[in-house]
UniProtKB/TrEMBL annotation:
A Pfam family matched in the record: Myb_DNA-bind_3
Coiled-coil region list: none
PANTHER family: L10-INTERACTING MYB DOMAIN-CONTAINING PROTEIN-LIKE, PTHR47584
InterPro entries for this protein: LIMYB (IPR045026), Myb/SANT-like_dom (IPR024752)
Keyword entries, A-Z: Signal
Stretches assigned to the Myb/SANT-like domain: 65-154
Protein species of origin: Nelumbo nucifera
Name this protein carries in UniProt: Myb/SANT-like domain-containing protein
First and last residue of the signal peptide: 1-17
Length: 155
């Protein structure tokens, strides 16, 4: 009986040892795969960024500089397209973006492309989100003339 018990313990010990070695082996395999995948993704991202930069240079695209008048025109065009039901989701459909792009470029004699309008739209959304978050703080009030938030020094 004792002999069977010791043999079983020894067999269990070797089984657990094999299991630990197997786990360590698979951990090494996964670490190796993760390392190679991250290197592939990094090189792919660098390649894509280089391609995008070269495309922008070919098209003559640069970071759009928006004046206050241009920003106001863009916001008014956005409001027009929301009222025209050309924003079925959180963004606009193709017709809405086309209208915004054409009217804006005509009015301000620019040649901005869709990506620049989309980026500006996202920047404005983030700015609005931060503004509304700021208004939720106790003690922050909005000046009715300038629409700028103000607060005392304690806030």
């Amino acid at each position: 009986m004792w002999r069977f018990f010791f043999v079983s313990l020894i067999a269990l010990k070797y089984f657990l040892l094999d299991l630990q070695v197997g786990i360590l082996h698979w951990e090494a395999v996964f670490e190796d795969a993760y390392y190679h995948e991250s290197r592939i993704l990094t090189s792919h991202q660098e390649k894509m960024a280089t391609e995008l930069d070269s495309e922008e240079l070919k098209l003559g695209l640069d970071c759009a500089q928006w004046s206050d008048a241009e920003e106001e025109t863009f916001i008014n065009l956005i409001v027009d397209q929301v009222r025209a039901n050309n924003s079925p989701t959180s963004s606009f459909n193709a017709e809405g973006w086309k209208y915004i792009r054409q009217k804006f470029n005509e009015k301000h004699d620019r040649s901005y492309v869709h990506a620049q309008f989309k980026n500006k739209y996202n920047v404005l959304r983030q700015r609005r989100k931060r503004y509304l978050t700021l208004l939720n703080y106790t003690g922050v009030i909005v000046d009715p003339l300038t629409k700028n938030p103000t607060s005392n020094e304690e806030v």
